[in-house]
Amino acid sequence: MLLLQRITVKDFDLASTVESGQLFRWQKQENGYVIAHRDELFYAEQKGNTLSFRGTTKKYIKNFFGLNIDYAAIKKTLAHDSILRKAVKAYPGIHLVNQDPWECTISFLCSSFSNIKKIQLNLRKIVECFGIDGAFPVPGTIDNHHTIKACSTGYRSAYIFAVNSKVDDAYFARLRKKSYADAKDALMELPGIGPKVADCICLFSLGFTEAFPVDVWVQRFMQESYGVKKEKEIRVFAAKKWGKLAGYFQQYLYHWRRLQ
DNA sequence: GACCAGGATATGG
DNA sequence: CCATATCATGGT
Q1: In this structure, which of A2, A78, A122, A181 has its CB flanked by the most CB atoms within 10 Å?
Q2: Cβ(A105)–Cβ(A168) below 8 Å
């Protein structure tokens, strides 16, 4: 309880940001959240415009939660579209989280045809089996196929095992320097990473805000609201309509439509 | 291009 | 208790 540092925030809501399906290693507490990410472990809570935290630095918190991004401007652009306005109004404080690309990759490899509860279970077990002192295992160390399967990852275990030996932190550093299209193409060469998972990694961990992950909920929304049905057409539509802001919109849409 | 497996969890009947 | 749905991908 002691020694909470404070940051004044605006246009930010911790709860909907944490619970909007971008992050998986968190636990809800009475007043806030314990959040684990890569080798960070911190606690955060919010009361009004005050975000309080302990266990990490102010710099990390600001970068992780995108607190220096001008969300008022993003939402203003968004408000031109009456359909999107509803989604944003419902959860006006959602931010995109700036994740570690390695943990993000493993997380979304687990996500295919799964659900948030189960992904959380998978990651909890992976950290138990392969991590050291509760930190997320470093690239190259999720290296036992049998154990990965014992983490309830099912058929995804083969992908996790293969990707573990194909990437490292330097690989992701190189991706950041590429264009969005090139980074996505590179990711899709990895086993188990298709367009959806590649877009999640691009959006949540590599800073490509034009990435527009299309899952069942986003697909439903896009069909209902704009009459675009096919996954590929949806991505083209979103890129044309929203450009660099597409990823922000996706996050509002996903959370809103899922909780309908 | 359509269909299908794989597998654990939660939810609705 | 059983049926169904779930932030997909790769193989046939």
Answers
A1: A122
A2: no
User: What three-state secondary structure class fits A25?
Assistant: coil
Specify which residue's alpha carbon is closest to the C1' of nucleotide B10: A117
pLDDT of residue A4: 95
Residue reference for tokens 């020694």:
A3
Residue with tokens 């009456």: A82
- Integer CA distances (angstroms), A39 to A102, A127, A136, in order: 12, 11, 6
List the structure tokens of A173.
Answer: 């550093």
A113 CA, B4 C1': Å apart: 14
Residue recorded with tokens 């570690």: A100
Report pTM: 0.95
Residues of chain A with pLDDT under 50: none
Rounded to whole angstroms, the Cα distance separating A185 from A48 reads 41
